[in-house]
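User: Fold this one for me? It's Nuclease.
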Amino acid sequence: MASGTATVKAVISGDTVVLMGASKTGPPPEIMLTLASLQAPKLARSSEQHDEPYAFTSREFLRNLLIGKQVRFKVEYKVAAINRDFASIYLDDENVCVLVAKEGMAKVKTLEQSRDGCSPDLEEMLRVQEIAVAEKKGIYSEDGTKAALHVSWSGLTGEELLGRFKGQQIPAIVEMVRDGAAMRVILLSTMQIVNFALSGVQCPRVNPPPGTEPQGPAPFSREAKLFTEVRLLHRKIKVKLEGTDKFGNLYGSVIHPSGHNISIELLKNGLGKMSDWSSEFLSVNTRTEMRNAEKSAKLLKTRVWHDYVPPVLQATDTSLQGLVVEVVSGDCIVVALKSKNYEEQRIYLSSIRAPRMGNARRNEPNAPYALDSKEAMRSKVIGKTVSIEIEYERNNPNLADNSVMTFASVFLESAVAKKKGGEPKPRVNIAESIVADGLAEVVRHKQGEEKSGHYDLLVAAEAQAKASKKGLHSTKPSPEPRITDLCFEANKAKQYLPFLQREKTLRAVVEHVYAGNRFKVYVPKENCTVNFIVAGIKCPQPAKPSKDAEPYGEDARRFARRSTMQRNVLIEVDDMDRMGNAFGPMYIGTKDFKNNFGCALLHEGYARVDDFSIERTSASSDLLQAEEVAKKARVHVWKNFAENEEETTTKVAVKRTSDEVLPVVRLSEITNATTFYIQNVSDRSVATIEEKMRDFTQQVGLDGKAFEIKKGVLCAALFDDGQGPVWNRARVEAKPTSGVQVKFIDYGNTEILPPTRLRPLDPSLVHHPAQAKECVLGFIKPFDTNAEFAGDAAHMLNDLAWGKNMTALVHGHDSNGRLSVSLLVNNKNVTESILEQGVARVDRKAIRYAEPYQKAIVDKLVTAQESARRRRLCMWQYGDVESDED
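Assistant: Here's what I get for Nuclease.
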């Protein structure tokens, strides 16, 4: 007779089980066995039958005891008339037949009733049965409730059950599995048996509906059914009712004690496909998990996906990062890709469609809400770093060549930002955000078409936008602004000049970049577009249809495009030329932290100071200083510049009537008695840079990263000021054998560091100007390195000024381009205090060329020096130390 070990797959009744063996290939063998010498109450198998008393209680005992467990079995006899095998089953070496008899859950057949055979433990079974009868256990109980407990085949309709239990976790037992995603379950709260299917999953049918082709079980249907049976059949689970179909069949989710989601497991193993219509019953997060599971099975060509052909992409790298440099429409952006040396690529957002932008040349108007959609996209992504997941490509229907449109999901990164508890914020899906604003629609793809990997999030966002009647889904017409274009009408532009000059600073948006310093800007306040030129500088010109590009012309235009295109900027209109082009300074950033873009171009070596127009701009000193930095670094247009080379043009001196005042400054480094660095803390520029560098440190950690170290390169250098190491901006000055000499551009100090304390600087931190400005004390004679009182003067400067907020009067620049200043602490000139102690002396040549408006300051300095001389302090202790040559 048959014997062996097997797993209990199903418990049919209180005395019958289905055992499943092991199999390396193909479906595992199964055998149905009835416990030898036992007879349990019969359960109803259809709505026409009725449960015998205690039938459900008896089956529940055996189910709880055996389901899913490994047992030994031995077939004791067979009844040919009913083709049934009767066996002894052992759980942990204990005969289950004896256990069932002992608990009174089935009747023991006597020897006279066992014509075909009996259990070898019949005597023991009869003995324990007598005890169970005496103790009124199991079916011998007088508890009418247990006797009456039975399963109902009818009762509440699917809609009624859904209305009563929707969203609740209801205890249930899976009674039968029709296919991988459809089953019959007993709802224990109502003891009703109902048809139940998994939301969002469709598995191959074992018995397809009549009339379908081909006939017979669908491929992989048996595998799907077995997969679910092994995990759920006759298991006690919880179901969550979520919806019904038109026939009243219930759909929902299974909550398994193991925590695994059977729907996701079926999809992951290629035993089912997503059902879009029933997936709408599920939460967005669950749908997303299921989509990801289906996607992994598709890529691996698992089972039902064995003949799946993935889309062939021209893109070799499907995960990219880059800087958004242009917004074409509400569903299309241009990104400068980091991995491709910032090559620009047009990216379309997967599975959404924004209103179409018009074409002025073809006299095509914008579709309703097209401008709103584009503007919303611009405000969200322009100038920001995004992550791109390329998902599919399409041939461009508007072009005859083989060019393709790249469709991707695009995300705004927020790795630095943290939630409470330290968890990173989730990435922002740009397509979902635009759809949620009601400014784009979700594409309804054809069967088998590739779609966004986040399609369900898009559908949910669209449903919310429709419910809220946002944007496209509203009943209000789209407002179409009427913008006055002044770019090609010089006379009209000049008529607007007084309006553009009413306020010193105007907010604007750069709409186009012609060259490094030439732009088309939109001015919202005046509702007009105008050509704008950054004053005080000249840039090499990019290529034109009839003319090749000048050296670095394309680079300058590319730099300007990536820094300003479609960005919010601040402009000051100084005047307008005869062609109607406005000119003046342009600032990028915010009012609290704005950078002169002319300085940025000069700093990077993409421009030169224009001697003719610099005298007409208020930022001349900043422009000259930025140019000097580029000259020293010999970058781009200054690549072949020699310091002893005489320039062909003479800088135009800017006439002043008073010294420039920096209201609040602080010392950041003292080089010697008369040379130091200051930070202008009048606005938030310094604080903002420090915050950005702290965020940068938090993001990248404290480990260095290799890069090409060469003179003039801007990088991040690790520095510890006693409050913990932080990355700071620094410029490479030299590479001595002991390390790398760098200068911290926001503080002024110079250090020699090992390469392990250096790393590349994030591009977003490169273009901010240096916050430390090198200065000398005005009208003071510089010290020689080993001068007798140089140390005393330096200590005195430190005592008087370090750590204090001061006012700086900028008198001009010295021969090395450094700011010549006076520092005022509580309206007292620090230079006066140093001179009064006799540790420094005035520069008679500098006094000789002082401007008339500086006379009051100079007179006080001379008086302070005379006081020290009369008292013969320090350097004056032996009398006059000055010579006629001084």
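One thing worth pointing out: The longest strand covers residues 169-179.
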